[in-house]
Amino acid sequence: MASLRDKLRPGKLLTAPGVFDGISLRLADRMGFECLYMTGYGTVASHLGLPDAGLASYRDMVERVRTFAGLATTPLFADGDTGYGGLLNVEHTVRGYEAAGAAAIQLEDQEFPKKCGHTPGRRVIPIEQAAAKIRVAAEARDSRDFLIVARTDARTAHGLDEALRRAEAFAEAGADILFVESPETVEEMEKIGRSFDLPLLVNVVEGGKTPVLSAEEYVALGYQIAIFPAVGFLAMGAALDSVYGTLKQTGASTGVTAPLADFMEFSKAMGFQQVWEFEKAHADMEGR
Questions:
Q1: Which of 124, 152, 153, 224 could form a disulfide with 166 if both were Cys (CB 3.0 to 4.6 A apart)?
Q2: For 111-133, what is each residue's pLDDT tens digit?
Q3: Residue 142: is it exposed, middle or buried by C-beta count within 10 angstroms (0-12/13-18/19+)?
Q4: Which residues contact 85 (CB under 8 A, 6 or more apart)?
Q5: Radius of gyration of the chain (CA)
Q6: Which CATH architecture has domain 4-236?
Q7: Quick one: residue 204, left, alpha or beta (phi over 0 = left, psi -120 to 50 = alpha)?
C-alpha cells in the first residue's frame, strides 16, 4: 500500500471524510478514499457524549485510533489535539498513535484545555512552545512515513499574519503538512497557498468560518488535503432527529421519511458476510 506521503502531490487533492465511530469508519473505508480523518469532535461526541473541549484523555483517543486503524484498509490520520500536555506528553502521544496504526497525527498550538476549531474562545500557546512540540513530534516517530500535521489556531484571535508566522515555524521544526485553521475568506486562503512549499490542509466545516468551495477551487488555492470532519455526523444528527422524532410522535416507523439503508446490505457492510461465511465453513465442527 502506498504511504500517505507518497499520495501527496501538487495539483492533486486528497479528500478525507471524517470518521467518528465504527459505523462511519466501515462505510467510508469501503468507498475508495485515499485517506480517512479521525475527527476529534465527532469521536469525542460519539465515544463519550461530550463536547470537544479537552475532556477526552490520551487514553480515550489512542484506543479509538487503535480500533479505527485496525478496521481500516485506508490510511487514517488522527486528531491528536495538543499532544495531551507538554513535550514529554507529545512524545508519548506520537509514539502511541503511530504504534496504534495511524498514518499521521494532527497536533495544534492551543492552550489546554483545547476547544474545537471554528468555535469561539480558542487561545494559543507561545510560538516557541508550539514549535518545540512539533520538533519533538518529528523526532519521536519511528518512520518518516508517519506524518506530522501541524495546526495553528492563531488566525481567529491574532490574525492571519501571526498564523502564517507560526506555520512557518512549524515547517522549520519538521512538520510534513501545514494546517492553518479557520481562514475566513478566499483571499486569506490564497495568501496561505502562496506562502508555503509544504502540503497544505483545509478544514471544511459546513457552517464554519472558512468558505466551503469545490475540490477544483481548493486545488487552485494550493491545498493538497481537504478534511470533512463534520459532514458525516451532521448528516447523522439530522437523520436521527427526524427518525426519532417520528417514532416519538407516532410510536411507529411507518411514517419515517429519512432514507434508510437496506438492512441486509448494511449488515454486510458491518462485517456480517464474514460471520455467515465462517459459520457455513465450520458448521460440521458444531455438529449441525
A1: 152
A2: 987 877 677 778 999 999 999 99
A3: exposed
A4: 112
A5: 20
A6: Alpha-Beta Barrel (3.20)
A7: beta
> Contacts for 249-258 with beta carbons within 8 Å, 24 or more apart?
none
Pairing of strands 76-79, 36-38: parallel
201-203/147-152 β-pairing: unpaired
54: pLDDT confidence band, cut at 50, 70 and 90? confident
Burial class (CB in 10 A: 0-12, 13-18, 19+), 91: middle
Asked if 181 contacts 164 with a C-beta cutoff of 8 angstroms, the reply is no
CA 182, 35, 39, 256 dihedral sign is positive
Domain ranges of the chain: 4-236, 258-288
What average pLDDT does this structure show over 179-198?
97
pLDDT at 240 over 90: yes
- The grid coordinates listed for 62 are 489512542
Band of residue 251 on the pLDDT scale cut at 50, 70, 90: very high
Residue-level pLDDT at 287 = 61
- Could you give the C-alpha distances from 196 to 127, 176, 177, 227, 237, in angstroms and in order? 18, 11, 10, 19, 37
What is the pTM (predicted TM-score) of this model? Answer: 0.94
